[in-house]
């Protein structure tokens, strides 16, 4: 009897250590889901940053390097260098690359926003930009956030140079967005094309507006493949049942869903550490539930965090250092409870085909 107990506990310990030995990346590969992180090229010279990234993730997305201001700094100049370094890093480590983003109201260069271009000129500029950037990464970037954050909170279209100030003159309402998708498709017919937005995870007025657009696009043959739900959790806890319903209605249209910018902000002390250590557990549960809600829908094909170490995150900058500690690794690259929670969710999930 004692031998049996000993053997059973040895097997258990072996299994537990096997589970513990798995990286997130191995767990994600096993579950058949893409697990990504937004990456800043400045940190690719830091060994702890690169080794953690390559070990733990099977997908990357440049946090800023593919945005207009970075990649198209002057009218006739494209600067692909920083984004190329991220893409090369991904290729060297067998990781997929999501591209972000081709059309956004902000992070545009001054030459563009102050240029007083006519609708016709803007239209040519946007077409050429999409053609050049998507063409440059053809076959290397598998999915693009073609358009980012085109809607306001209540479901109205956001004012921007592309839509109405003066707009590219592509017709009414969301037609300018459809036009961007068509141009992206022409530049790389094999890339998956996503509409990406913040606070469209739950069923509400904003996600209803995006849903209506996506449905219309599918009916009219606009080449859209998916919806990116950013999932920045800055306050409180998300309504998981509503997220599940929302993901389901988009995937029923024949679209994929990617969770694209997940982070869960906590109140922090002067050193950027969670002021209340019990918050780390609450954070882990949110990460666990969001992972599960994606895993449970086979058309939710990617889960990505907006950065991966608390050393570098937009949250501190955004909240004047009152919040932070939002990611899976602390600022010393040590895994947090949230890391274990995602890993467990992935390990417990039956493998699916990618
Ligand atoms: O950290 C520096 C700070 O040291 C410096 O004093 C300050 C001066 O402006 O800049 C700070 O860097 C800023 C950085 O955010 C901090 O994270 C950059 O100026 C600013 O341009 C940069 O903004 C980026 C932002 O998009 C605008 O493009 C963030 O890197 C990036 O995380 C954020 O990402 C967006 C997604 O693209 C779309 N969804 C929302 C998401 C979060 O805002």
Q: Could you walk me through the main structural features you see in this protein, from its secondary elements to its overall organization?
A:
With 354 residues, the chain is an alpha/beta fold. The protein has a single domain (23-348), classed as Glycosidases (TIM Barrel), CATH 3.20.20.80. It is 43% helix and 16% strand. The chain has 13 helices and eleven strands. Strands 1-2-3-4-5-6-8-10 form an eight-stranded parallel beta barrel, surrounded by six helices. Helix 2 runs parallel beside helix 13 (337-348) and helix 7 (119-136) runs parallel beside helix 8. The longest helix has 20 residues, at 2-21. The chain is globular and about 55 Å long. 42% of the residues are buried. Mean pLDDT is 94; it is low at 1-18. Bound molecules: ligand G3I.
Q: What ligands are attached or bound here?
A: ligand G3I
Helices and strands, in order, run as: HHEHEHHEHHEHEHEEHEEHEHEH
Separation of termini? 45 Å
CATH class: Alpha Beta
Rounded to an integer in angstroms, the radius of gyration calculated over CA atoms is 21 Å
Tally the helices: 13
Strand arrangement across the biggest beta sheet? 1-2-3-4-5-6-8-10
Topology (SSEs and partners):
Layout: H1 2-21, H2 24-31, E1 34-39, H3 47-56, E2 59-62, H4 68-71, H5 81-92, E3 96-104, H6 110-113, H7 119-136, E4 143-148, H8 175-187, E5 192-197, H9 205-220, E6 226-229, E7 232-233, H10 240-252, E8 256-264, E9 266-267, H11 278-295, E10 300-305, H12 314-318, E11 323-324, H13 337-348
Parallel strand pairs: 1-2, 1-10, 2-3, 3-4, 4-5, 5-6, 6-8, 7-8, 8-10
Antiparallel strand pairs: 9-11
Ligand G3I binds at residues 63-64, 67, 107, 148, 198, 230, 261, 314, 317.
